[in-house]
Protein backbone atom coordinates (compact mmCIF):
# COMPACT_ATOMS: atom_id res chain seq x y z
CA UNK A 1 0.00 0.00 0.00
CA UNK A 2 1.14 3.51 -0.73
CA UNK A 3 1.68 6.17 1.85
CA UNK A 4 -0.99 8.85 1.55
CA UNK A 5 -0.26 11.10 4.50
CA UNK A 6 3.03 11.84 6.19
CA UNK A 7 3.44 14.06 9.21
CA UNK A 8 7.01 14.75 10.36
CA UNK A 9 8.25 16.53 13.44
CA UNK A 10 5.01 18.42 13.91
CA UNK A 11 4.95 20.78 16.89
CA UNK A 12 2.40 23.29 18.04
CA UNK A 13 2.89 25.81 20.79
CA UNK A 14 -0.02 28.11 21.55
CA UNK A 15 0.50 31.77 22.27
CA UNK A 16 0.04 31.22 25.99
CA UNK A 17 3.04 28.87 25.89
CA UNK A 18 1.04 25.64 26.09
CA UNK A 19 2.72 23.01 23.97
CA UNK A 20 -0.08 20.98 22.40
CA UNK A 21 2.07 18.85 20.10
CA UNK A 22 5.66 17.86 20.83
CA UNK A 23 7.10 16.51 17.60
CA UNK A 24 4.52 14.18 16.11
CA UNK A 25 5.47 11.75 13.33
CA UNK A 26 2.75 9.74 11.64
CA UNK A 27 2.58 7.88 8.37
CA UNK A 28 -0.76 6.71 7.00
CA UNK A 29 -1.22 4.06 4.33
CA UNK A 30 -3.88 4.44 1.70
CA UNK A 31 -7.10 2.61 2.49
CA UNK A 32 -6.50 1.93 6.16
CA UNK A 33 -8.45 3.03 9.19
CA UNK A 34 -6.31 4.53 11.90
CA UNK A 35 -7.79 5.30 15.27
CA UNK A 36 -6.05 7.92 17.35
CA UNK A 37 -6.76 7.17 20.92
CA UNK A 38 -6.09 9.59 23.70
CA UNK A 39 -7.57 11.29 26.73
CA UNK A 40 -9.08 14.78 26.52
CA UNK A 41 -6.44 17.40 25.84
CA UNK A 42 -3.99 14.89 24.39
CA UNK A 43 -3.64 16.86 21.15
CA UNK A 44 -5.89 14.79 18.88
CA UNK A 45 -7.98 17.68 17.62
CA UNK A 46 -4.97 19.97 17.35
CA UNK A 47 -3.24 17.42 15.14
CA UNK A 48 -6.28 17.07 12.88
CA UNK A 49 -6.83 20.84 12.75
CA UNK A 50 -3.30 21.40 11.55
CA UNK A 51 -3.43 18.70 8.91
CA UNK A 52 -6.74 20.10 7.65
CA UNK A 53 -5.51 23.71 7.57
CA UNK A 54 -7.61 25.14 10.39
CA UNK A 55 -4.64 25.78 12.66
CA UNK A 56 -1.06 26.51 11.79
CA UNK A 57 1.83 24.39 12.99
CA UNK A 58 4.76 25.87 14.87
CA UNK A 59 7.15 23.58 13.02
CA UNK A 60 7.18 20.35 11.05
CA UNK A 61 6.07 19.22 7.62
CA UNK A 62 2.99 17.50 6.24
CA UNK A 63 2.62 15.86 2.85
CA UNK A 64 -0.74 14.68 1.56
CA UNK A 65 -0.69 12.36 -1.44
CA UNK A 66 2.81 13.62 -2.17
CA UNK A 67 1.80 17.29 -2.09
CA UNK A 68 3.30 19.65 0.45
CA UNK A 69 0.50 20.82 2.68
CA UNK A 70 1.77 24.41 2.64
CA UNK A 71 3.17 25.00 -0.83
CA UNK A 72 0.59 22.94 -2.74
CA UNK A 73 -2.23 23.64 -0.33
CA UNK A 74 -4.92 23.38 -2.99
CA UNK A 75 -3.87 19.94 -4.22
CA UNK A 76 -3.28 18.74 -0.67
CA UNK A 77 -6.58 19.93 0.77
CA UNK A 78 -8.47 18.63 -2.21
CA UNK A 79 -7.65 15.12 -0.99
CA UNK A 80 -8.93 15.70 2.54
CA UNK A 81 -12.41 15.71 4.03
CA UNK A 82 -13.01 16.71 7.63
CA UNK A 83 -15.87 15.82 9.93
CA UNK A 84 -15.43 18.08 12.94
CA UNK A 85 -16.14 17.14 16.50
CA UNK A 86 -18.76 19.82 17.09
CA UNK A 87 -21.96 19.85 15.07
CA UNK A 88 -21.16 23.00 13.12
CA UNK A 89 -23.94 23.52 10.61
CA UNK A 90 -26.01 26.34 9.18
CA UNK A 91 -29.33 25.71 10.96
CA UNK A 92 -31.55 27.42 8.40
CA UNK A 93 -30.16 25.77 5.29
CA UNK A 94 -31.53 22.64 3.70
CA UNK A 95 -29.34 19.55 3.71
CA UNK A 96 -28.96 19.68 -0.07
CA UNK A 97 -27.92 23.34 -0.14
CA UNK A 98 -25.45 22.89 2.64
CA UNK A 99 -23.79 19.94 0.90
CA UNK A 100 -23.80 21.78 -2.44
CA UNK A 101 -22.00 24.66 -0.75
CA UNK A 102 -19.30 22.33 0.54
CA UNK A 103 -18.81 20.74 -2.86
CA UNK A 104 -18.47 24.16 -4.46
CA UNK A 105 -15.97 25.32 -1.86
CA UNK A 106 -13.74 22.43 -2.81
CA UNK A 107 -13.80 23.64 -6.38
CA UNK A 108 -16.02 20.93 -7.80
CA UNK A 109 -18.74 21.80 -10.32
CA UNK A 110 -22.30 21.34 -9.17
CA UNK A 111 -23.36 17.69 -9.39
CA UNK A 112 -26.59 16.95 -7.59
CA UNK A 113 -26.58 13.35 -8.74
CA UNK A 114 -23.29 12.66 -6.96
CA UNK A 115 -24.54 14.42 -3.85
CA UNK A 116 -27.69 12.31 -3.85
CA UNK A 117 -25.57 9.16 -4.09
CA UNK A 118 -23.66 10.24 -1.00
CA UNK A 119 -26.86 11.10 0.83
CA UNK A 120 -28.17 7.63 0.00
CA UNK A 121 -24.99 6.02 1.30
CA UNK A 122 -25.59 7.84 4.57
CA UNK A 123 -29.35 7.10 4.64
CA UNK A 124 -30.00 10.82 4.44
CA UNK A 125 -31.66 10.96 1.07
CA UNK A 126 -35.21 11.39 2.30
CA UNK A 127 -34.07 14.37 4.38
CA UNK A 128 -32.39 16.24 1.54
CA UNK A 129 -34.90 19.09 1.43
CA UNK A 130 -35.29 19.39 5.20
CA UNK A 131 -33.79 22.29 7.03
CA UNK A 132 -30.86 21.23 9.14
CA UNK A 133 -32.33 22.55 12.38
CA UNK A 134 -35.23 20.10 12.06
CA UNK A 135 -32.91 17.06 12.07
CA UNK A 136 -31.95 14.91 15.03
CA UNK A 137 -28.41 14.93 16.41
CA UNK A 138 -27.52 11.69 14.65
CA UNK A 139 -28.81 13.00 11.33
CA UNK A 140 -26.84 16.21 11.75
CA UNK A 141 -23.68 14.19 12.16
CA UNK A 142 -24.47 12.41 8.93
CA UNK A 143 -24.88 15.78 7.22
CA UNK A 144 -21.39 16.67 8.43
CA UNK A 145 -20.09 13.43 6.92
CA UNK A 146 -21.92 14.12 3.66
CA UNK A 147 -20.36 17.60 3.54
CA UNK A 148 -16.93 16.09 4.10
CA UNK A 149 -17.44 13.43 1.42
CA UNK A 150 -19.10 15.49 -1.29
CA UNK A 151 -15.86 16.44 -3.00
CA UNK A 152 -14.74 12.80 -3.09
CA UNK A 153 -11.71 13.07 -0.79
CA UNK A 154 -9.25 10.22 -0.45
CA UNK A 155 -8.66 10.82 3.24
CA UNK A 156 -11.44 11.36 5.71
CA UNK A 157 -10.84 12.73 9.19
CA UNK A 158 -13.49 11.92 11.76
CA UNK A 159 -12.90 13.88 14.94
CA UNK A 160 -14.69 12.04 17.72
CA UNK A 161 -17.53 10.89 15.50
CA UNK A 162 -19.48 9.38 18.35
CA UNK A 163 -18.89 11.84 21.17
CA UNK A 164 -22.16 12.36 22.97
CA UNK A 165 -24.01 9.90 20.76
CA UNK A 166 -26.18 7.14 22.18
CA UNK A 167 -25.26 3.48 21.84
CA UNK A 168 -27.49 2.75 18.88
CA UNK A 169 -26.23 5.72 16.88
CA UNK A 170 -22.69 4.75 17.71
CA UNK A 171 -23.19 1.31 16.19
CA UNK A 172 -24.73 3.07 13.22
CA UNK A 173 -21.68 5.24 12.84
CA UNK A 174 -19.41 2.18 12.93
CA UNK A 175 -21.43 0.70 10.14
CA UNK A 176 -21.11 3.87 8.10
CA UNK A 177 -17.36 3.86 8.60
CA UNK A 178 -17.18 0.24 7.47
CA UNK A 179 -19.18 1.17 4.34
CA UNK A 180 -16.85 4.10 3.65
CA UNK A 181 -13.82 1.88 3.96
CA UNK A 182 -15.25 -0.31 1.25
CA UNK A 183 -15.29 2.69 -1.06
CA UNK A 184 -11.53 2.90 -0.60
CA UNK A 185 -11.37 6.03 1.54
CA UNK A 186 -8.56 6.25 4.07
CA UNK A 187 -10.02 7.06 7.47
CA UNK A 188 -8.39 8.66 10.46
CA UNK A 189 -10.60 8.92 13.46
CA UNK A 190 -10.02 10.14 16.96
CA UNK A 191 -11.82 8.78 19.92
CA UNK A 192 -11.49 8.23 23.58
CA UNK A 193 -13.74 5.21 23.45
CA UNK A 194 -11.52 2.18 23.33
CA UNK A 195 -14.24 -0.10 22.08
CA UNK A 196 -14.65 2.19 19.12
CA UNK A 197 -11.02 1.86 18.15
CA UNK A 198 -11.25 -1.86 18.75
CA UNK A 199 -14.33 -2.18 16.57
CA UNK A 200 -13.24 -0.09 13.61
CA UNK A 201 -9.52 0.43 13.30
CA UNK A 202 -6.83 -1.45 11.43
CA UNK A 203 -4.13 0.38 13.34
CA UNK A 204 -4.26 2.21 16.60
CA UNK A 205 -2.18 5.17 17.64
CA UNK A 206 -2.06 6.27 21.23
CA UNK A 207 -1.51 9.95 21.83
CA UNK A 208 -1.04 11.60 25.17
CA UNK A 209 0.20 15.04 26.15
CA UNK A 210 1.11 15.98 22.60
CA UNK A 211 3.15 12.88 21.86
CA UNK A 212 2.37 9.73 19.95
CA UNK A 213 3.23 6.97 22.36
CA UNK A 214 2.85 4.25 19.76
CA UNK A 215 1.18 3.27 16.54
CA UNK A 216 0.59 -0.38 15.90
CA UNK A 217 -1.64 -2.93 14.23
CA UNK A 218 -4.64 -3.33 16.45
CA UNK A 219 -4.36 -7.09 16.87
CA UNK A 220 -0.63 -6.94 17.47
CA UNK A 221 -1.10 -4.23 20.03
CA UNK A 222 -3.63 -6.19 21.98
CA UNK A 223 -1.44 -9.25 21.76
CA UNK A 224 1.80 -7.51 22.61
CA UNK A 225 0.53 -5.59 25.53
CA UNK A 226 -2.14 -8.06 26.40
CA UNK A 227 -2.22 -9.28 29.90
CA UNK A 228 -4.41 -12.21 30.62
CA UNK A 229 -6.33 -13.01 33.70
CA UNK A 230 -6.87 -16.50 34.96
CA UNK A 231 -9.98 -16.91 37.07
CA UNK A 232 -9.92 -19.78 39.46
CA UNK A 233 -13.10 -20.89 41.09
CA UNK A 234 -12.68 -22.83 44.26
CA UNK A 235 -14.83 -25.56 45.72
CA UNK A 236 -15.07 -23.70 48.98
CA UNK A 237 -15.08 -19.91 49.28
CA UNK A 238 -12.22 -18.36 51.19
CA UNK A 239 -12.09 -15.00 52.92
CA UNK A 240 -8.40 -14.34 52.62
CA UNK A 241 -5.42 -15.57 50.71
CA UNK A 242 -3.34 -18.27 52.34
CA UNK A 243 0.04 -16.87 53.51
CA UNK A 244 1.96 -19.25 51.26
CA UNK A 245 0.46 -17.54 48.22
CA UNK A 246 1.00 -13.96 49.34
CA UNK A 247 3.95 -13.34 47.00
CA UNK A 248 1.98 -14.32 43.87
CA UNK A 249 0.17 -11.88 41.58
CA UNK A 250 -3.12 -13.05 42.98
CA UNK A 251 -6.18 -11.28 44.26
CA UNK A 252 -9.46 -12.34 45.70
CA UNK A 253 -12.57 -11.32 43.85
CA UNK A 254 -16.05 -12.38 45.01
CA UNK A 255 -14.65 -15.40 46.67
CA UNK A 256 -12.65 -16.68 43.71
CA UNK A 257 -9.05 -16.14 42.80
CA UNK A 258 -7.83 -14.00 39.95
CA UNK A 259 -4.28 -14.44 38.66
CA UNK A 260 -2.82 -11.87 36.27
CA UNK A 261 -0.01 -12.85 33.95
CA UNK A 262 1.84 -11.58 30.95
CA UNK A 263 1.33 -13.66 27.83
CA UNK A 264 4.65 -12.47 26.44
CA UNK A 265 6.71 -13.51 29.45
CA UNK A 266 9.05 -16.52 29.24
CA UNK A 267 7.08 -18.25 31.88
CA UNK A 268 3.53 -17.46 32.82
CA UNK A 269 3.92 -19.15 36.18
CA UNK A 270 0.64 -21.01 35.83
CA UNK A 271 2.03 -24.48 36.41
CA UNK A 272 3.79 -23.37 39.55
CA UNK A 273 0.69 -21.60 40.76
CA UNK A 274 -1.50 -24.65 40.35
CA UNK A 275 1.00 -26.73 42.30
CA UNK A 276 1.10 -24.13 45.05
CA UNK A 277 -2.69 -24.04 45.23
CA UNK A 278 -2.81 -27.76 45.73
CA UNK A 279 -0.11 -27.51 48.37
CA UNK A 280 -2.18 -24.87 50.18
CA UNK A 281 -5.09 -27.30 50.22
CA UNK A 282 -7.33 -25.36 47.82
CA UNK A 283 -9.47 -27.30 45.37
CA UNK A 284 -10.45 -25.88 41.99
CA UNK A 285 -13.81 -26.39 40.32
CA UNK A 286 -13.35 -24.25 37.26
CA UNK A 287 -10.76 -22.23 35.34
CA UNK A 288 -11.26 -19.48 32.78
CA UNK A 289 -9.00 -16.91 31.12
CA UNK A 290 -9.80 -13.41 29.94
CA UNK A 291 -7.79 -11.19 27.57
CA UNK A 292 -7.38 -7.67 28.86
CA UNK A 293 -9.22 -5.08 26.81
CA UNK A 294 -7.69 -2.18 24.93
CA UNK A 295 -9.00 0.04 27.67
CA UNK A 296 -6.70 -1.50 30.20
CA UNK A 297 -3.80 -1.38 27.76
CA UNK A 298 -4.53 2.24 27.12
CA UNK A 299 -4.69 3.19 30.76
CA UNK A 300 -1.37 1.44 31.31
CA UNK A 301 0.24 3.30 28.44
CA UNK A 302 -0.99 6.70 29.47
CA UNK A 303 0.18 6.04 33.01
CA UNK A 304 3.59 5.01 31.72
CA UNK A 305 3.72 8.15 29.61
CA UNK A 306 2.97 10.22 32.68
CA UNK A 307 5.58 8.51 34.80
CA UNK B 1 -8.48 30.65 -9.15
CA UNK B 2 -11.15 28.44 -7.59
CA UNK B 3 -14.17 29.90 -9.40
CA UNK B 4 -16.50 27.21 -8.16
CA UNK B 5 -15.73 28.21 -4.59
CA UNK B 6 -16.45 31.87 -5.31
CA UNK B 7 -19.70 30.88 -6.96
CA UNK B 8 -20.61 28.63 -4.04
CA UNK B 9 -20.01 31.34 -1.43
CA UNK B 10 -21.79 33.99 -3.50
CA UNK B 11 -24.82 31.78 -4.13
CA UNK B 12 -25.00 30.66 -0.53
CA UNK B 13 -24.97 34.26 0.70
CA UNK B 14 -27.48 35.43 -1.89
CA UNK B 15 -29.81 32.57 -1.03
CA UNK B 16 -29.84 33.84 2.54
CA UNK B 17 -30.86 37.25 1.21
CA UNK B 18 -33.76 35.81 -0.72
CA UNK B 19 -34.77 33.56 2.14
CA UNK B 20 -35.04 36.57 4.42
CA UNK B 21 -36.55 38.81 1.80
CA UNK B 22 -38.83 40.71 4.15
CA UNK B 23 -36.04 41.54 6.54
CA UNK B 24 -33.39 42.13 3.88
CA UNK B 25 -35.25 44.18 1.32
CA UNK B 26 -38.65 45.24 2.55
CA UNK B 27 -37.52 46.83 5.78
CA UNK B 28 -34.95 49.24 4.25
CA UNK B 29 -37.53 50.26 1.66
CA UNK B 30 -40.11 50.87 4.34
CA UNK B 31 -37.79 52.92 6.53
CA UNK B 32 -36.68 55.01 3.56
CA UNK B 33 -40.27 55.69 2.63
CA UNK B 34 -40.81 56.91 6.18
CA UNK B 35 -37.89 59.31 5.78
CA UNK B 36 -39.49 60.64 2.62
CA UNK B 37 -42.80 61.16 4.37
CA UNK B 38 -41.24 62.88 7.38
CA UNK B 39 -38.36 64.85 5.85
CA UNK B 40 -39.53 65.16 2.29
CA UNK B 41 -43.24 65.86 2.69
CA UNK B 42 -43.89 67.03 6.24
CA UNK B 43 -40.76 69.03 7.06
CA UNK B 44 -39.49 69.44 3.51
CA UNK B 45 -42.56 71.40 2.45
CA UNK B 46 -41.44 74.16 4.82
CA UNK B 47 -37.86 74.20 3.58
CA UNK B 48 -36.86 76.19 0.54
CA UNK B 49 -34.84 74.72 -2.24
CA UNK B 50 -31.28 73.76 -1.39
CA UNK B 51 -28.85 74.94 -4.04
CA UNK B 52 -31.58 74.97 -6.63
CA UNK B 53 -32.92 71.52 -5.82
CA UNK B 54 -36.20 70.87 -4.01
CA UNK B 55 -35.54 69.57 -0.52
CA UNK B 56 -37.40 66.32 -1.14
CA UNK B 57 -35.17 65.52 -4.09
CA UNK B 58 -32.07 66.89 -2.38
CA UNK B 59 -32.18 64.23 0.34
CA UNK B 60 -32.54 61.29 -2.09
CA UNK B 61 -28.79 60.68 -2.62
CA UNK B 62 -28.16 61.01 1.11
CA UNK B 63 -30.93 58.58 1.94
CA UNK B 64 -29.65 56.04 -0.56
CA UNK B 65 -26.13 56.39 0.85
CA UNK B 66 -27.40 56.07 4.41
CA UNK B 67 -29.03 52.74 3.62
CA UNK B 68 -26.37 51.45 1.28
CA UNK B 69 -23.52 52.13 3.71
CA UNK B 70 -25.33 50.46 6.59
CA UNK B 71 -26.49 47.52 4.50
CA UNK B 72 -23.16 46.86 2.81
CA UNK B 73 -21.37 46.96 6.14
CA UNK B 74 -23.83 44.88 8.11
CA UNK B 75 -24.34 42.27 5.37
CA UNK B 76 -20.67 41.63 4.91
CA UNK B 77 -19.93 41.65 8.61
CA UNK B 78 -22.76 39.25 9.34
CA UNK B 79 -21.83 37.08 6.35
CA UNK B 80 -18.39 36.26 7.71
CA UNK B 81 -19.21 36.55 11.42
CA UNK B 82 -22.05 34.03 11.32
CA UNK B 83 -19.87 31.10 10.17
CA UNK B 84 -17.42 32.03 12.92
CA UNK B 85 -20.23 32.15 15.45
CA UNK B 86 -21.80 28.79 14.53
CA UNK B 87 -18.45 27.16 13.76
CA UNK B 88 -18.92 26.46 10.06
CA UNK B 89 -15.86 28.59 9.34
CA UNK B 90 -13.85 25.37 9.67
CA UNK B 91 -15.01 24.53 6.17
CA UNK B 92 -13.69 27.75 4.66
CA UNK B 93 -10.36 27.23 6.38
CA UNK B 94 -9.98 23.61 5.34
CA UNK B 95 -11.13 24.04 1.74
CA UNK B 96 -8.70 24.59 -1.14
CA UNK B 97 -9.65 28.25 -1.38
CA UNK B 98 -7.40 31.26 -1.13
CA UNK B 99 -8.35 34.32 0.87
CA UNK B 100 -8.87 36.28 -2.31
CA UNK B 101 -11.65 33.90 -3.27
CA UNK B 102 -13.25 34.09 0.16
CA UNK B 103 -13.25 37.90 0.01
CA UNK B 104 -14.65 38.03 -3.52
CA UNK B 105 -17.46 35.65 -2.54
CA UNK B 106 -18.55 37.33 0.68
CA UNK B 107 -17.88 40.94 -0.26
CA UNK B 108 -19.36 40.44 -3.71
CA UNK B 109 -22.59 39.07 -2.26
CA UNK B 110 -22.87 41.78 0.39
CA UNK B 111 -22.19 44.51 -2.15
CA UNK B 112 -24.72 43.03 -4.59
CA UNK B 113 -27.38 43.04 -1.92
CA UNK B 114 -26.59 46.62 -0.91
CA UNK B 115 -26.63 47.69 -4.56
CA UNK B 116 -30.01 46.02 -5.06
CA UNK B 117 -31.44 47.84 -2.08
CA UNK B 118 -29.93 51.13 -3.25
CA UNK B 119 -31.59 50.77 -6.63
CA UNK B 120 -34.90 49.77 -5.07
CA UNK B 121 -34.79 52.90 -2.90
CA UNK B 122 -34.00 54.99 -5.95
CA UNK B 123 -37.03 53.52 -7.66
CA UNK B 124 -39.14 54.14 -4.55
CA UNK B 125 -37.96 57.75 -4.46
CA UNK B 126 -39.49 58.28 -7.89
CA UNK B 127 -42.91 57.87 -6.31
CA UNK B 128 -42.27 60.76 -3.95
CA UNK B 129 -40.22 63.29 -5.91
CA UNK B 130 -39.25 64.24 -9.44
CA UNK B 131 -35.72 63.10 -10.14
CA UNK B 132 -33.49 63.81 -13.09
CA UNK B 133 -30.12 62.15 -12.78
CA UNK B 134 -27.50 64.43 -14.34
CA UNK B 135 -24.67 61.88 -14.64
CA UNK B 136 -26.15 58.37 -14.53
CA UNK B 137 -22.86 56.58 -15.22
CA UNK B 138 -21.12 58.44 -12.42
CA UNK B 139 -24.09 57.81 -10.18
CA UNK B 140 -23.81 54.05 -10.73
CA UNK B 141 -20.03 54.12 -10.40
CA UNK B 142 -20.27 55.89 -7.05
CA UNK B 143 -22.95 53.52 -5.88
CA UNK B 144 -21.00 50.39 -6.86
CA UNK B 145 -17.74 51.70 -5.40
CA UNK B 146 -19.48 52.59 -2.16
CA UNK B 147 -21.16 49.19 -1.92
CA UNK B 148 -17.84 47.43 -2.49
CA UNK B 149 -15.72 49.49 -0.14
CA UNK B 150 -18.18 49.38 2.74
CA UNK B 151 -18.71 45.66 2.21
CA UNK B 152 -14.92 45.36 2.58
CA UNK B 153 -15.13 47.36 5.80
CA UNK B 154 -17.96 45.13 6.98
CA UNK B 155 -15.89 42.05 6.22
CA UNK B 156 -13.11 43.39 8.45
CA UNK B 157 -15.58 44.13 11.22
CA UNK B 158 -17.02 40.62 10.92
CA UNK B 159 -13.59 39.07 11.29
CA UNK B 160 -12.69 41.34 14.18
CA UNK B 161 -15.97 40.92 16.09
CA UNK B 162 -16.01 38.45 18.93
CA UNK B 163 -19.70 38.83 19.74
CA UNK B 164 -22.94 40.01 18.20
CA UNK B 165 -22.69 43.13 20.30
CA UNK B 166 -19.36 44.07 18.76
CA UNK B 167 -20.81 43.30 15.37
CA UNK B 168 -23.44 46.00 15.87
CA UNK B 169 -21.05 48.41 17.52
CA UNK B 170 -19.27 49.88 14.51
CA UNK B 171 -22.35 50.36 12.32
CA UNK B 172 -24.25 51.85 15.21
CA UNK B 173 -21.60 54.04 16.80
CA UNK B 174 -19.51 54.99 13.81
CA UNK B 175 -21.28 54.62 10.50
CA UNK B 176 -24.73 55.96 11.35
CA UNK B 177 -23.40 59.17 13.01
CA UNK B 178 -20.93 59.73 10.19
CA UNK B 179 -23.68 59.41 7.60
CA UNK B 180 -26.10 61.64 9.48
CA UNK B 181 -23.37 64.24 9.99
CA UNK B 182 -22.07 63.74 6.47
CA UNK B 183 -24.69 65.87 4.79
CA UNK B 184 -27.37 63.27 4.07
CA UNK B 185 -30.12 65.71 4.93
CA UNK B 186 -28.39 69.06 4.39
CA UNK B 187 -25.69 70.80 2.43
CA UNK B 188 -22.64 71.41 4.58
CA UNK B 189 -22.70 75.03 3.39
CA UNK B 190 -25.74 75.37 5.69
CA UNK B 191 -23.49 74.79 8.74
CA UNK B 192 -21.58 77.45 10.71
CA UNK B 193 -18.00 77.86 9.32
CA UNK B 194 -16.28 76.04 12.18
CA UNK B 195 -18.51 72.96 11.69
CA UNK B 196 -17.92 73.08 7.98
CA UNK B 197 -14.20 72.62 8.68
CA UNK B 198 -14.83 69.81 11.20
CA UNK B 199 -17.10 68.08 8.71
CA UNK B 200 -14.33 67.89 6.16
CA UNK B 201 -12.71 65.23 8.36
CA UNK B 202 -15.74 63.03 7.89
CA UNK B 203 -15.01 60.68 4.98
CA UNK B 204 -18.70 60.13 4.29
CA UNK B 205 -19.07 63.81 3.30
CA UNK B 206 -17.00 63.09 0.20
CA UNK B 207 -19.10 60.10 -0.76
CA UNK B 208 -22.41 61.87 -0.36
CA UNK B 209 -21.13 65.00 -2.07
CA UNK B 210 -19.90 63.04 -5.07
CA UNK B 211 -23.05 60.98 -5.23
CA UNK B 212 -25.21 64.09 -5.03
CA UNK B 213 -23.15 65.72 -7.75
CA UNK B 214 -23.96 62.76 -10.00
CA UNK B 215 -27.64 63.47 -9.41
CA UNK B 216 -27.91 67.27 -9.44
CA UNK B 217 -24.56 68.63 -10.57
CA UNK B 218 -24.13 70.36 -7.20
CA UNK B 219 -21.47 69.33 -4.71
CA UNK B 220 -20.04 70.33 -1.32
CA UNK B 221 -16.51 69.28 -2.25
CA UNK B 222 -14.92 68.86 -5.64
CA UNK B 223 -15.51 65.66 -7.61
CA UNK B 224 -11.78 64.95 -7.57
CA UNK B 225 -11.74 64.71 -3.79
CA UNK B 226 -14.84 62.55 -3.76
CA UNK B 227 -13.27 60.05 -6.14
CA UNK B 228 -9.95 60.20 -4.30
CA UNK B 229 -11.70 59.60 -0.98
CA UNK B 230 -13.52 56.51 -2.11
CA UNK B 231 -10.49 55.03 -3.85
CA UNK B 232 -8.37 55.79 -0.79
CA UNK B 233 -10.89 54.17 1.53
CA UNK B 234 -11.17 51.09 -0.63
CA UNK B 235 -7.39 50.75 -0.81
CA UNK B 236 -7.13 51.04 2.97
CA UNK B 237 -9.71 48.27 3.43
CA UNK B 238 -7.98 46.03 0.88
CA UNK B 239 -4.64 46.51 2.62
CA UNK B 240 -6.20 45.68 5.98
CA UNK B 241 -7.80 42.53 4.57
CA UNK B 242 -4.55 41.52 2.94
CA UNK B 243 -2.83 41.82 6.30
CA UNK B 244 -5.57 39.85 8.09
CA UNK B 245 -5.25 36.97 5.70
CA UNK B 246 -1.48 36.94 5.65
CA UNK B 247 -1.37 36.69 9.40
CA UNK B 248 -4.53 34.64 9.90
CA UNK B 249 -5.60 37.21 12.48
CA UNK B 250 -8.71 36.08 14.41
CA UNK B 251 -9.23 33.19 12.01
CA UNK B 252 -6.47 30.63 12.46
CA UNK B 253 -5.14 29.76 15.87
UniProtKB/TrEMBL annotation, chain A:
One of its GO terms (molecular function) is ATP binding. Keywords: ATP-binding, Nucleotide-binding, Transport. InterPro entries: AAA+_ATPase, ABC_transporter-like_ATP-bd, ABC_transporter-like_CS, ABC_transporter_ATP-binding, P-loop_NTPase. PROSITE patterns: ABC_TRANSPORTER_1, ABC_TRANSPORTER_2. It comes from the Bacteria. Pfam families: ABC_tran. Gene3D superfamilies: P-loop containing nucleotide triphosphate hydrolases. Residues 5-234 form the ABC transporter domain. PANTHER family: ABC TRANSPORTER ATP-BINDING PROTEIN (PTHR42711). This is ABC transporter ATP-binding protein. It comes from Aliiroseovarius salicola.
TrEMBL record, chain B:
It comes from Aliiroseovarius salicola. It is found in: Cell inner membrane; Membrane. Residues 19-248 form the ABC transmembrane type-2 domain. PROSITE patterns: ABC_TM2 (PS51012). InterPro entries: ABC-2_transport_permease, ABC2_TM, ABC2_TM_bact-type, ABC_2_transport. This is Transport permease protein. It holds the Pfam family ABC2_membrane. It is a multi-pass membrane protein. Keywords: Cell membrane, Membrane, Transmembrane, Transmembrane helix, Transport. Belongs to the ABC-2 integral membrane protein family. Coiled coil: none annotated. The chain crosses the membrane at residues 21-43, 55-82, 140-161, 167-186, 198-216, 222-245.
